[in-house]
Write a structure and sequence with these properties.
MetI-like fold; mainly alpha
């Protein structure tokens, strides 16, 4: 008498999460991943490589070693052996060192001003979208008025009154870049507040602020992350424009924007002063934009062209 064949026990599939699925889709986007690792490398180089003792002070001048070529070494008039990886500028300062320290300023402005705009924009947009009605209309008209204000004139007035301070860049840029973020979050919240989970939260007696902070804002994290990756390069570009106009970082300190301005002023005599910072600045902006596109497709597959 033959026994019935035994069936193999059913295998239990491991669950997954939205974040894990998004990371899997992002890894398949080779351009976005290359941009991510490039940006991480730039951040590490700018913030940690200057800690190495071999990296010279970016503000030390050697007037007798002006406009030295890349990969050159020379002895200064003080008898000090000096090596230049990317050459020296018109004052004998190390270009590579100034690019690293300038990257610190540009990236710090990009990160901190984006955090300011993210905080203000998310809270403002969430409250406006959830309140609706007349409150929403008034809050959005305030955003429209701020959009219409001449930003450059305000910056000129503030820098004339307070001076060219680095904190002023954070305030000026962060006070403008949150406007678009607030509109994005408002639109998301308006579409979410009619969902069943919000009605369930109301039926449990949760306060409006608890519904906004615990249920609505976390559900807008996808679009917020995507727009954040696009806000950082926008802020860095705005800082570069202000520095190019002389309203940003003041000498002897430098940012990528001020280095590009110095290079543009001396482009005819020494093109390397413009080429090197322009290349790293442009490559960083491109990497952030490509990463933002990849995150958009990973977090919102319906928007992907695939």
């Amino acid at each position: 008498m033959t026994s019935a064949p035994q069936t193999a026990p059913a295998t239990i599939e491991k669950g997954t999460s939205l974040g894990r699925d998004a990371w899997y889709r992002l890894k398949k986007n080779h351009l976005a991943m290359a941009s991510l690792w490039f940006f991480v490398a730039v951040v590490i180089l700018c913030f940690f490589l200057p800690l190495v003792p071999a990296i010279p002070d970016p503000n030390v001048t050697h007037p007798d070693l002006q406009s030295m070529p890349a990969f050159s070494s020379a002895t200064s008039i003080e008898g000090k052996e000096v090596s230049y990886l990317l050459g020296s500028d018109h004052l004998g300062r190390d270009i590579f060192s100034r690019m690293l320290y300038g990257g610190r300023v540009s990236l710090a402005v990009g990160f901190l001003a984006t955090i300011v705009s993210l905080t203000i924009g998310v809270l403002y947009g969430a409250v406006s979208g959830f309140a609706g009605g007349r409150t929403d209309a008034v809050m959005m008209r305030i955003v429209d008025i701020l959009y219409a204000l001449p930003f450059m004139i305000i910056v000129i007035i503030l820098t004339t009154y307070f001076g060219n301070k680095l904190w002023l860049l954070f305030v000026c840029i962060g006070a403008v870049e949150w406007l678009t973020m607030s509109r994005i979050v408002r639109g998301q919240v308006r579409s979410l507040k009619s969902q069943e989970f919000v009605d369930a939260a109301r039926s449990l007696g949760l306060s409006s602020w608890r519904i906004i902070s615990r249920h609505l804002i976390p559900n807008t994290v996808g679009p917020v992350i995507i727009y954040t990756t696009l806000t950082v390069p926008a802020v860095m570009r705005l800082e570069a424009i202000l520095s190019f106009l002389g309203l940003g970082v003041q000498p002897p300190d430098a940012s990528w924007g001020s280095l590009i301005k110095e290079g543009a002023d001396r482009m005819a005599s020494d093109p390397s002063l413009l080429v090197y910072p322009a290349i790293i600045f442009g490559a960083t902006l491109f990497s952030l934009n490509f990463l933002g596109d990849g995150l958009r497709d990973a977090l919102d597959p319906k928007s992907s062209k695939d």
